[in-house]
């Protein structure tokens, strides 16, 4: 049991007896297995929106908060990434006895976590809210989903069609945008952030990278492309990412390798949660261009966020999920190479030379920037969290009826 760990109470700081007493008064409890809702990751944000939709039904929500090392709220069960998953899951299930579990993650992680819960004796209703980063999907993952996914929700039509062709029914509910918060900034707001955070002059061009330092995001490729761009001397690169990661790179060293260390600004994140959403909006909305060229992706929420703020976007034309989400509102780069990753899906790679040319085009051509801004705004307006809210609420009503 995880509670036997001598450091466990240091991280949880929640009296288990009191929590269990409260649990006895609950009628229905929904557990969300995902990044913690206080984190500014894509899964953290979707976790929060899903939880709010369920709370609006009057049900109790408990978060299995992956990535959180200490308790910040009574309904968020902190699960540090270095803790063994079976131990944490056992403690979570014993403490809260959820009637329904929602697995909000990529398909492989969702299946792994569901398999662990079943192995510990949990046999309640399972809802999989998943993204599929790469196609084709590993046959073993598909088999598991066919046999265990009571309700499956996916954010793109492409994924829905793919699963349907594999004999798996899935509901479509795209990720959304809080349009009241993600609106283009005033020039005064942009100017303040650019001067005091990015420390740029009026004639400098700010490129933003908002991505986890993970091999899938291919951040070094962007650094190389910036070093190759002919407009490099006027470019500042804002990296909203970890400087170092066991799943990615030492990005300071990469920047130094390409000789652009003096043109790179790293996010100043002093807490484990990243930055508050309002600050994230101001940082994203103060860039001149956002680049997001992962080798694959299940949706890429930053696409809609940049577009909703009126920021031009360069991304990869995977002709799958990423292309669908960009909706004709981004400058798409054709892949020049591909390979298969661990779960069999194809990874697409763009050329740093093609990316450098694209950067120069955006820097030089005001009309291109204007077109990307307008097309992006139009695409982003098509998305809201309303569809996901309705799909989740209907599924939970059916599960609890």
Provide a short characterization of the protein structure.
The chain has 401 residues and is α/β, with parallel strands linked by helices.
Kindly describe this structure:
The protein has 401 residues and is α/β, with parallel strands linked by helices. The chain has helices at residues 8-12, 16-23, 42-55, 85-96, 107-119, 139-148, 157-165, 187-196, 219-228, 251-257, 277-285, 301-308, 321-326, 352-364, 366-380, 386-400; strands at residues 29-35, 60-66, 76-79, 100-106, 125-131, 151-154, 171-172, 205-210, 235-240, 264-266, 289-292, 313-316, 331-333, 337-340, 346-349. The strands form three sheets. A seven-stranded parallel beta sheet has the order 3-2-1-4-5-6-7, sandwiched between helices. The protein has a six-stranded parallel beta sheet with strand order 10-9-8-11-12-13, sandwiched between helices. Helix 3 (42-55) crosses helix 16. The model is unreliable at 1-26 (pLDDT under 50).
